[in-house]
Design a protein that fits this description.
55% helix, single chain, mainly alpha, 3-stranded parallel β-sheet
């Protein structure tokens, strides 16, 4: 009886692992978005999209008007970043953004005129 139970458990685990491997391989590649979709999502979220050339010109004109936020991991930030940027590691998931809400609000501060740039 015990042998039969152990064999059944091993079989169930093997099938479960096989199903998980199969499901993992079936994942579709991330969907690519085109520019109109990105622009629409930005408008819906209250963001303004600008070209990197516009950003560079504005930053060179008045660096104090910008808060540059580097969202990479600390070791990546230390390896190189834009001068004046602050490091705020942030995973690109909704859960990470929700968890970081208060700390991010404190970093951004209350000045609505400040242009915040995440990269």
């Amino acid at each position: 009886m015990t042998f039969l139970v152990i064999t059944s458990v091993i079989l169930i685990i093997a099938v479960a692992v096989g199903v998980l491997v199969w499901l993992r391989r079936r994942r579709a590649a991330p969907r690519e978005f085109d520019w109109p979709e990105i622009a629409a999502a930005a408008r819906q979220g209250g963001y303004e999209l600008i070209l990197t050339t516009e950003l560079a010109a504005g930053y060179l004109r008045d660096p104090a008007a910008f808060l540059l936020v580097d969202t990479r991991e600390p070791q990546e930030f230390q390896a190189g970043h834009i001068r004046g940027a602050v490091n705020f590691p942030l995973k690109p998931t909704r859960w990470a953004r929700l968890r970081a809400g208060k700390a991010l609000a404190a970093l951004l501060g209350p000045d609505p005129r400040l242009s915040v740039v995440f990269y």
